[in-house]
Amino acid sequence: MRADSPTVILLGQPNSGKSTLFNAIAGHKALTSNFPGTSYKHTHSEVNIEGRLLNVVDLPGTYSLNPSEPAEKVILSHLFQERPDLIVNVVDASILGRSLELTLELLELGFPMIVALNMVDLAEKKGIQINPNTLEKRLGVKVVPTVASHGRGLKQLLEAASFCLDHPCLATSPPWSGDVEEEVRHLADMLPPEIIIAGNPRFTAIKLIEANKTFCLEVLAEAEPMLKSELDLAKQRIEEKRRAQAYEVISAERHHLALKLAEESSRVRRGKQLRWDERVDDIIMHPILGYLILVLIFLAFFFLIFKIGGPLEGALLGPLAGLRTLLSGWLGSGLLFHLADGLLQGIGGGAAIVLPYFVPLLFFMAFLEDLGYLARAGFLLDTFMHRIGLHGKSVSPFILGFGCNVPAVLSTRILESPRDRAITSLLIPFIPCSARTTIILALVAFYLGPVWALGFYFFNILLVAVIGRLLTLFFKDPSPGLILEIPSLKAPSLVTMAQKTYLQLKSFVKFAWPLLVGGSVVLSLLQFLSLDKVLNAAFSPLVVHGLGLPQPLGITLVFGFLRKELSLIMMLQALGVEYKNLLTVISREQILVFTVFVSFFIPCLSTFAILWKEIGKKIAFLSVGLSIAVAIAVSLLVRLFF
Amino acid sequence: MMILRIILNKLEGTGKKMIRLSEAPHGRQLRIVDVQGGEGVRRRLFALGFHKDDLVEINSQGILRGPLLIKNLTADTSVAMGRGIAHRIMVEVVPDEG
Description:
The complex is a heterodimer of chains A (642) and B (98). Chain A has 642 residues and is an alpha/beta fold. Chain A contains 27 helices and ten strands. Chain A has helices spanning 18-26, 70-82, 96-109, 120-125, 132-139, 154-166, 178-190, 201-210, 217-223, 225-242, 246-265, 276-284, 289-331, 335-371, 373-387, 395-403, 405-410, 418-427, 434-448, 450-472, 494-528, 531-546, 554-559, 564-575, 588-600, 605-614, 617-641, and strands spanning 7-12, 31-34, 41-49, 52-58, 86-92, 113-118, 128-130, 142-145, 266-268, 483-486. The chains are: A alpha/beta (642), B alpha+beta (98).
């Protein structure tokens, strides 16, 4: 981070459109990095705004700034370290009262701040008209209405940001009810300077009052016994007067103040009326229809990807084969040909076999995510998750896992209990990610028919359930119940979906494709030097005798650890056939066994790395052992029954 | 057991009828009277905007005694809630107007 460019931090509740706003102003060259010492990610980008270079940071969405929640603590400490020159608080205007709770908590920090009143179009559709001027007066900071998904209000927002970087825009938090406010002030006045956080006594006092028992209070008791007893007295007075725990009183203060501010600054034009999203929600969350629709969505999802990917793949493979024949004509069969062939297989395989399925999958995932369907699937599937010892909150990581296991493991952070996180993370590598979907569609659906591929999926999900049930036997402590916010349905914007697909595609082209090309070239070289035979011979007990596959496939399974698609691309290369002629050298049964083994046999390198980093070494290695055992067992079963 | 009995006695003593959210009627306006349970769960509920005196409504439920879909009418948000947690939220039915 450059010291000379001012830092602007975007903060907001989940689903406030914060990331959409970030992408709209800074997305094109965004970088993702970890918070120091953790694997919590934040995205930042340098943007040139009217000649001024800004360092814009997008922090993960958060409901509050409670230091006893690990994810929220990271945000707090980042705020203190970074000392942003400006906070842009992104607020969902359609649920203003709810969103302002975080705003009020941010105001307590006393950093320079402006508010992006986002999704005002949605609020208007709900019949709520918000007067930004009134809100601005009440909050004491600038308020700019925006619609990030359509780029509305962005210019004004940036102007306001620019103004606040030149002029002081310090936030002050509106006072609370007399008695609570008095206790806070009283405590703030007594704080010794060395324990004041961020130079703000009021903020420190509030955090001390609402902190839970474990949080630094014991340290305080030792270092400042006087202060500790004053704090306890203050809490006691609040609790006696309000007949509720101190943290509840503070939270209720923000809640009621937020509702009051929202009421004062908005006008409801229409009475209560069923809106389209409520009507749709009544159907897709219906106790019977909801499940029917869930199944239909996933069937449609699968067939659409296959119907788009299949023909595309067929169309691209022809020219690729032609190019290969041309190459061998030019270069003969020496080292040069092998190098060129490896390159062609890697690049061409990526373009013709992987991308046709990968891109539509990414696009549909973005669609479901933007629509807000993942949380709804969580609600519907909670019952079934209970059967395997988890609950509905694990559904969203699982569904993300169909895209890529890596973000899926990252997203297990939403789970509160370490037990749920461990089990979910162990199960995610069994979810067929886009790489494996590519293999399943390109091999099973293409050669055995789409019904077989669908059956494969069904069996796969069943397998996840069985493994989950078995795993929960080893984790004794019960899972805490489900509390999952269901965001309002949003009509997904094509631009945002395209943007998301593009960003993911970019990371595929940057990181995964080179691996595919490199792997193909290495295999080519090994073949040229006849080293592949040595390796294949070493694996042949498992590959030939155990799995009943052709010996040359041994080496491809090893490379599958780097990237699952690599096994597919290298399979063709190792067998020395064109994709279209695959059935001349390998039987349908062998295709199925190969797909099963590749799908389950080990989490790919990136998944392994993220498991290690996020959940721990033990779970990462457990995952490897588990998947090898499952892959061998299931492959043998397929051989037995087919 | 003792504690439970004391709580039950207290509940009967109050004027309005308190029921558990998990047993409350669907589609009726309910007022949250008390949020019970451990500190962790209570903090999570508060962070999601569920407080005493808020008006809520049960909108749907998952099959096979699945979770409840609770709409908070005061904050205009929806939350899917396991029955175990809904069991700890005490509510009273708001009489229909007119």
